[in-house]
Amino acid sequence: MKLDYLSLSNFRNYTEESVDFSPGINVFIGENAEGKTSLLEAIYMLSLARSHRTSNEKEMIRWQTDAAYVSGRLTNKTSEISLSIRLTKNGKIAKVNHLEQKRLSDFVGHLNVVLFAPEDLDLVKGSPQLRRKFIDRELGQMNPVYLYESVNYQRMMKQRNAYLKQLIQREATDKVYLEILTEQLATSAVQIIQHRQKFTQQLEKWAQPIHHRVSHGKEELTLHYRSPVDLSDAPDDETLYQRLMDKIANAKESELQRGITLVGPHRDDLTFKVNGRNVQKYGSQGQQRTTVLSMKLAEIECMKAITGDYPILLLDDVLSELDNERQTHLLKSIEKKIQTFLTTTSLDGIQKNYIDEPRIYQISDGQIER
């Protein structure tokens, strides 16, 4: 999978820019706030139809303009695909091969990306929300069924939370309707949990040998999907549904006091263990960083195994956060097989032995010069 070119119009600090890319490693050099990360953000938009930096999409429209436009051409094993997104203050229009997509879920999945940025180093020690977003982002690209269920679950949970608040405020009294909402939510939750559990197992399969190599054979990494519902016996859908309903029933009084849904995949988590010890709680910074690196490299291989094609890799100023050894493992892993977009303020200190004939661009004040 390769992104051949990218065109930007009134996107962030870019007025009008078009740039062709190498199928190998593309390096963008520039000072901070010149537009390097915005370029990766635009590529990310063509993948997931949203930003990885902000939930306020108006921020991506250049100041004193009405709309922003991002387009590009993707080449995969079988075809060339044109992708575009137009952002306005009233919403966005996404097109595949110049045809407008009625649902954004139909747009997502054509261009697969793996993003590795400094904030991803908090994946292990950060909040559970970060890890849930990590799973949702990767699974959503590869599995349209999961993407649909995830959107559906969020919609139903919002509806259920609103009704819980109405019951608390005595604006509603029909608890039978609450049970209907609960059953619908649990049905969707079962699908999400099953997909996440399977993805965690697939990710572990790829991450374990990578982590073993990076740690020179001293460490074994294991992943565990954590849910208040027992998953140890790999329950089928019906069993999992009943276990979820039992847990929700036990939390009913608390939910009616607080007005929020307390049980479900929106509160689940992912645990990392190294040699049987929780690396989130007891691991050194080096172990935590090795775990994140292993996870990111595993994402790439997992995506290749599921989709049949390597994703595009976005490295947003992350090499400066890795020591020479971890840089070497990262760059050796992507060498000559993955199209990569790398931003940096300088090539100094980067292990250049593993960057084979990079195409280098200078970015300054929203202008790109090869």
TrEMBL record:
Keywords associated with the record: ATP-binding, Cytoplasm, DNA damage, DNA repair, DNA replication, DNA-binding, Nucleotide-binding, SOS response
Principal place of residence: cytoplasm
Membrane-spanning residues: none
One GO term describing the cellular component: cytoplasm
Binding sites annotated in the UniProt record for ATP: 30-37
Any one GO biological process: SOS response
Annotated NCBIfam families: recf
Family, per entry: Belongs to the RecF family.
Protein name: DNA replication and repair protein RecF
Lineage, highest ranks first: Bacteria, Bacillati, Bacillota, Bacilli, Lactobacillales
